[in-house]
Specification:
There is one protein chain. The N and C termini lie far apart (75 Å). The protein has 2 domains: 82 residues, no CATH class; 55 residues, Nucleic acid-binding proteins (OB fold (Dihydrolipoamide Acetyltransferase, E2P)). The longest helix is centred in the middle third of the chain and has 27 residues. 46% of the residues lie in helices and 19% in strands. A hairpin with a 2-residue loop joins strand 4 and strand 5. By secondary structure, it is α+β, with helices and mostly antiparallel strands. Helix 2 packs antiparallel against helix 3 and helix 3 packs across helix 4. The protein has a 5-stranded mixed beta sheet with strand order 1-4-5-3-2, with no helix packed on it.
Length: 156
Amino acid sequence: MDIIQYLLDHHDHSFYLIGGLSLVVELTVLGLSGPLLFFGIAAFFTGVLSSLGIISGWETEIFTLGISTGILAALLWQPLKRFQNSGGGPDTSSDMIGLEVPASTDINQRGGKIRYSGIDWSARLDRDAASEGIKAKEMCTIIGVEGTIMLVKPLP
């Protein structure tokens, strides 16, 4: 028996294969961005329903796959987006984080400059800082990095 005939005769295994391939592509190529994740989970769900004999026939199975994908996307999209954007802990991407440095210019939410190691670096006030700004020559703490811009907050 060849593989194509086997998958045509065993619909549930076809959906397991489709679901597995979808999840592998989602995790390796797309980086858990969403669309194939929902499709892959729905394919596994459809395979289980087909294995249990609850649904049968390609038309019903494809319909169930489509409806399941839509329902999963509607239910899980926002929670997964919140999870992806949650940050995941303190920023340790630079050895400058945690240093106390002087402000070269006034720093506010829009921008400013700090001085470190003889170089003026672009900086801006962190959005969670309780201050309106930092005056030139005042000391501040680097708490994060966004690209080439240092996020700072005033010393307590």
